Amino acid sequence: MKFSSLHFIAIFISLTSVFRYSNVTAAPEEFCKRYAQEAIKSQQQNATKNCGFSGPGGTWSNNYNEHYNWCIETPQGDVKQGANHRRNLLARCDNCAGYAKEAVEAQKKNVAKNCGFSGPGGTWSSGYNEHFSWCVSTSQSESDGGANHRRNLLARCDNCAGYAKEAVEAQKKNVANDCGYTSGVPNGTWSENYNAHFGWCTSSPDDLSTQGTQERRSALEKCTKYCVSYANQAIDAQKQNISMNCGFSGPGGTWLNDYNEHFRWCVNNPEYLSERGTSYRLGYLEVCKDRKEICQEYANSAVAQNQDNISKAWGFHGPEWHGDFNKHLWWCLDPNTPDKYINDGTSFRKNKLASCKLPKHPPRPKQKQSMAIKRFLGLEKFIIWSTKPKCRMECFRASRTQILDWENNGSS
Q1: What stretch of H or E contains 304?
Q2: pLDDT value, residue 137
Q3: CA atoms of 177 and 175, how far apart (whole Å)
Q4: What count of other Cβ atoms lies within 10 Å of the Cβ of residue 226?
Q5: What is the full DSSP assignment across 51-85?
Q6: Stretch 140-164: mean pLDDT, rounded?
Q7: DSSP summary character for residue 107
Q8: Residue among 146, 143, 41 nearest 96 (CA)
Q9: What pLDDT does 192 receive?
Q10: Tell me: the pLDDT tens digits for 50-63?
Q11: How would you label 328-354 residue by residue, b for 16+ Cβ within 10 Å and e otherwise?
Q12: C-alpha to C-alpha distance for 349 and 316, rounded to whole angstroms
């Protein structure tokens, strides 16, 4: 039988198609033997590690023939994919065993340290199987996130234990040093209740607990060092005030010999006000050293001048005229008062008083009044009281003319 070239071509195409189809639809026998053996080992590991994997079509099975026959009838690419799927799940099982073990240990620390953490879905649980089952049923990223969340909270718990311990110690120092702190932000800033501090810390952001710690440290630093120094300086200033006989007093207890009063004021006010008070006292004491005698003389003179003003009813008034010795003294001793103003103030009052004591016009020499002048004065008085206003000027002119006639004629 002879075959044409067309026959050979047709046979070649048919054989090529058969071989190509067989490579796509079925895996080689040796490959499937190895696949089946690996599948059996995978299932043994699944059972030994208690991974709990199962799946459709005998994916997890101890039946060699079942795995082999499935491989022979399945494209090689799909078989490789199935083998990789089991490998990945077994690796996941190993990871989840570590995840569950760590989760159980985290819960033990949570209880031992009294952290008080709890959460949805058994996040804080001592059940190994519960954690493991959740892990194998979710993605790697989700289980990693859960593990990191617990680690962060436990670290937070350790930090808050230190926070609460320091907060309690701070309150003890507050009481021992009589600082008097009773309130603040955050709530319960000054308290010996460890659990209250700890509970607040674990439920608040890190930055707030850090802020609370810093606020307590700063407040205790102010109370135990800064305000102690401030009160001692205030007492020393008052001693100098007394010893130099400066006479300073007020306002608001600035000049007191009471340590507690100065200390308490310092604790309850901003530091810039305390610094201003210290500078205020030092400035006045410095001026007192330089001006004490001058200002005492000034104040005495001012009081005496004001008394002269009152006794003679001159009627001068204003900030320069009053009888408060201390007020004059303080004005004079004020570091902001220039020396020139002190001299000017004394001179101002002196000149005012002098202007009132001098007569406004020099006295005229007394002359013997003639009978004509006497008559004129009588006539003038008569005109003022007996005429109407519009006639008075004319009457005065007539009277002046009349008195001249009297003078010229020698009337007496």
Answers
A1: helix 271-311
A2: 85
A3: 6
A4: 16
A5: -----GGGSS-S-HHHHHHHHHTS-HHHHHHHHHH
A6: 92
A7: H
A8: 143
A9: 92
A10: 888 887 767 888 99
A11: bbbbbbeeebeeeebeebbebbeeebe
A12: 9
